[in-house]
Design brief:
Keywords: Iron, Metal-binding, Monooxygenase, Oxidoreductase, Phenylalanine catabolism. This protein is an alpha/beta fold and about 300 residues long. The chain is built from twelve helices and nine strands. Strand 5 (about 190) and strand 6 (about 195) form a beta hairpin. The two termini are about 35 Å apart. The structure holds phenylalanine (PHE) and fe (iii) ion. Phenylalanine (PHE) binds near residues 154, 161, 255, 257 and 259.
């Protein structure tokens, strides 16, 4: 099985953008023996480059979790090996998938402490950017924090919340997805020695790891649950706004209450453009907006 070819898409899901292709929902065995030397080299290159970029940029929790996992640049990790470590630490396990899953399938995995990991890795000419999650994003970006007990519980709670929101209405799902985006994917955390990254969409990207902390262009704003759930986001460029938590405990506490009344409230409020700063925001950095595109928030 060549890993350099595009995996087959077998389903289409109706969204507000029309039919969008999604991958097969099946859990697949990681075809480890069929990774090419190219694949392992791409892993090694990305791994080593991000290790350097993340020094002083990724949160202490992320770096500690990553060390405890013992992933190495030498070769693409085997899910089975990582699973032995993960199960012992927090009871999570990885399952191989072709790529993006329908929402309910994804939530069901998380609710059962299973994290779906895309088994294929990007090509060498896609080192800097890929528009969909691959093995590097999923393994390097998402999996380490599943070793952190508080974050591990947050991910499961999110999955359960997703199953619930799915049963309410599509708007509830839109609001919940924004929370995932601005925490799990693009979250920043405030440490005693400054802002750090914990979001996996950032830690798996060299340019955004630097941009999110060092550029004056984006807003960096304190975490506020309902504010985040109203805020649109970017899927094709750097984020215009990053939200900063004080701790994973804060994230857990803020998201523990029943969201049902929140969804009802949010249904009556307008969404907020990705780059807007509100009077009540706790602003760490008011972005200059340099390089922002006027349209394209989703
Ligand atoms: N408390 C949320 C609800 O009732 C569930 C949730 C937990 C959502 C953690 C996100 C993160 O829907
Ligand atoms: Fe992701």
């Amino acid at each position: 099985m060549a890993t350099q070819s595009t995996p087959q898409r077998v389903e289409h899901q109706l969204t507000d953008k029309g039919y969008v292709p999604v991958y097969t929902t099946a859990v697949v065995e990681q075809p480890w023996a069929s990774y090419s030397s190219q694949d392992h080299a791409v892993w090694a290159q990305l791994f080593e480059r991000q290790q350097q970029v993340l020094v002083g940029r990724a949160s202490d929790e992320f770096l500690a979790a990553q060390r405890a996992m013992h992933m190495s640049p030498d070769r693409i990790p085997k899910f089975d090996d990582l699973n032995r470590v993960l199960r012992a630490h927090t009871g999570w396990e990885l399952v191989g998938v072709e790529g993006l899953l329908p929402e309910l399938t994804f939530f069901d995995h998380l609710a059962n402490r299973r994290f779906p990991v895309t088994w294929w890795i990007r090509r060498a000419d896609q080192i800097d950017y890929l528009s969909e999650p691959d093995l590097f994003h999923d393994l390097f970006g998402h999996v380490p924090l599943l070793m952190n007990p508080v974050f591990a519980d947050y991910m499961q709670a999110y999955g359960r919340g997703g199953v619930k929101a799915h049963g309410i209405n599509p708007e509830a799902l839109v609001h919940l997805t924004r929370l995932y985006w601005y925490t799990v994917e693009f979250g920043l955390i405030r440490q005693a020695d400054g802002l750090r990254i914990y979001g996996s969409g950032i830690v798996s990207s060299k340019s955004e790891s630097i941009h999110c902390l060092e550029s004056n262009a984006p807003n960096r704003i304190g975490f506020d649950l309902e504010r985040i759930m109203r805020t649109r986001y970017r899927i094709d460029t750097f984020q215009k706004t990053y939200f900063v938590i004080d701790s994973f405990e804060q994230l857990m506490q803020a998201t523990t209450p029943d969201f049902t009344p929140i969804y009802e409230r949010l249904a009556r409020q307008d969404s907020i453009p990705a780059g807007e700063v509100l009077p009540d925001d706790r602003v760490f950095n008011r972005g200059t907006g340099e390089g922002w595109l006027a349209d394209g928030d989703v």
